[in-house]
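Repro:
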Amino acid sequence: MKLAVRNKMSDKIECLLRKAEAQEQSSSPEQSSVTSAGRNFLTNEEAEAAFSRLEEKLFHIKNWNNASGASSYELFDANGDNRLDNAMTIGDFIRISLKGALKYDWVKIIEIYRSSNEIVLTVQPTFNPTEDNTNESVTSHFFNDQATNNFCLEKTDKSLKFYVIGLNEKTNTLETKGLLETIRNLATANIGSYLGIQKGEWKTFCEQFLEIENQK
């Protein structure tokens, strides 16, 4: 992976990209992934207006479903109650349904970063908050709880770019409920990695989120 040359460095996103590049080049078992799409506008004013609108769009889960190809998403609060159309906040949970994955995967929103030219929403694999007698030490996701996915919106002059940056992506084989779930996690993580399903899904997500089709 080569870090793309960009006209203007943005601190938060630039840091995430460099971490991803370092992990890609290291010999550690953790993996990284970077998927992105870009969109150009005629004026700075148009880009600024789109940045503000897409910032609002990022924090409503129904927009994730509109931008998705092979996955669907639902938002839940800390008590495991569905939040429907509410805006996302730190501490909320997202339930992910991957086609053919046999069970839901769960992530928790752990950080929201905002500046004048970049937005970063960070999620991390977590337990299922809707279960009775929830065991918070059991990560219900095919990656373990050290992984993060970072959804990043950046404005540079008359351009917008949207990234999905995955860090510390290591398959969850320890915090499972048995052999079948361990096998399922290995298959979901590895098939996605080897065949490009996961990367292809995020590429579709990035392009749909930026509404690139609307330009054509």
